[in-house]
Amino acid sequence: MSAEDADDEPSVPEKVLRTVTPGVTGKRNIEMDALGWGILVGMLILLVPLLPFIIIVWLLTKVFDFVARARGE
Questions:
Q1: How many domains, in total, are found in the chain?
Q2: DSSP annotation string for 9-56
């Protein structure tokens, strides 16, 4: 990376942009909240039963990696 690339960082806007729409207030979006919780529950229903298999595969890869390194020495 050259010194010229370091100067290519984005700069602060020089002019404030005005919009027609009002600013967003801090209110809850109940529909999106429910959708997010539904996705979380769905992922948990799918992944929790698969967790033992994921752990077994992870442990087997660690054991095979250890054995391969032990043979290589």
A1: 1
A2: SPPPPSSPPP-SSPPPP----HHHHHHHHHHHHHHHHHHHHHHHHHHH
